[in-house]
Amino acid sequence: MKTLLFLGLLAVANAQYSEVRHIALDAVDKLREILPDYQSAHDITINKLYESKQKALGELNSFYNQTLTLKTNSLKVVMDAELNLLNYGNTIEDWCFENNIWGLMSITGWAGNKYSECIKKLDDSIDKDVAEMYEQFSVSEAKIQKYSIFEVFFKPSNIISRPESLADTISKLKIDITDDIPDFDDIIRTFIIDLREKQSQYTNCLDELQTVFDDEIQRLRKFSEECVEEQNN
Ligand SMILES: *[C@@H]1O[C@H](CO)[C@@H](O)[C@H](O)[C@H]1NC(C)=O
């Protein structure tokens, strides 16, 4: 009786061995099969990341270029106005212009400081945008790094007694990896919008400078013109 029971159990164990244990081995093989997908998801991500960073930095460089153009144009206008006033001064009696020399020195000094102020403000905010852009790249990149291949073995089930659900988990892992390849385009779009916004703030700062400068130049000129008029009367 005891022997019969033993033989019965042995038969069950043998049957289970041949039906279920191979599923466990298959599961390990399946995981090996998804390794190329895993590798390719990494490759795609790294390549995209590299291209996207290059693109973002290209945008940054053309932003610098445009900003320098804005600054150059503004400087030219300011210097022209200064030269005009000096030329006018050369055509009139000294005493009608003498006092304006100090006024002119003072307003050009102010303009120089204002230029620094405008560009400093711009530089600070761009630093922040660039840091944010890099941060977003690394957060996106990390999405694909979250897959630890071996986790499937300790998360859902026991590989020896219940390998079936393990197989499910493995096939799901494959789909997840492909779906999670990050799209970095949004980061570049946001970065471009940020740069444009900062550039328009910089333009406003230069416009403010221009308005104050022009008003002061006009005031100085009027002062001289009135003096000349008085001389003629
Ligand atoms: C800067 O912009 C000008 C046009 O405004 C362009 O001709 C020049 O090639 C640009 N330089 C760089 C380094 O992008």
Automatic annotation (TrEMBL):
Domain of life where this protein originates: Eukaryota
Keywords: Signal
Signal peptide range in chain numbering: 1-15
Name of the featured protein: Secreted protein
Lineage: Eukaryota, Metazoa, Ecdysozoa, Arthropoda, Hexapoda
